[in-house]
Amino acid sequence: MKRTFCIALALVTLLVVQACNNKKAKNYNKINQANEEGISFVKDALESGAAEIKVSQLALTNSRNTEVLAFAKMIIADRTDADAELRKLSGSKVANDTLTVAHEYLVSSLTGKKGHDFDKEYTQAMVNDHENAIKIFKAGETNTDKKLKDFAGKTLPKLQEHLKQANEICLGLK
Q: CA-CA to 19 of 20 to 30 Å: which in 29, 62, 104, 158?
């Protein structure tokens, strides 16, 4: 009887151990890496949007060119909407609105310019910033967070259209 009980206990123990071994453990390194990639995308995308909005707001006061003014209004509207959607999607991942040193320098540089000089520098900055934003959003399309990936894919064509328009305006100002 003791022998049968020991054998049964050993079998139960073996089954429990086997059942536990079949469960896959979470790889927290992959989760943290995916989370970090998502946070990086959100921060970079929001910073790019904030810079475009701030510089475009300057265009509303420093430019007299109707094409530049219409473009600036479009940028402010589109990026404000996109940034709001991204903040909603990302939840509490990012709450920072600071600009990079390069964008702060751009804002400072553009603040003192008016008219044609402003228009040339502004549109060139929009070309450069949209080229960078497109890189950020293309990287965002590979994000493991489906919501962020979908957002990047949905927003990318609009950024590409902005780049095209900025190039056309910039070339027309020469």
A: 29
Q: How far, CA to CA in Å, does 109 sit from each of 25, 35, 115, 172?
A: 53, 36, 14, 22
Tokens 């553009």 belong to 110
75 touches 56 (CB < 8 A): yes
Using DSSP's 3-state secondary structure scheme, residue 103 falls into helix
Q: Is the pLDDT of residue 90 over 90?
A: no
Least confident of 11-15, 100-104, 120-124, 140-144: 11-15
Q: Model pTM? A: 0.78
Rounded CA-CA distance 21/130 in Å is 50
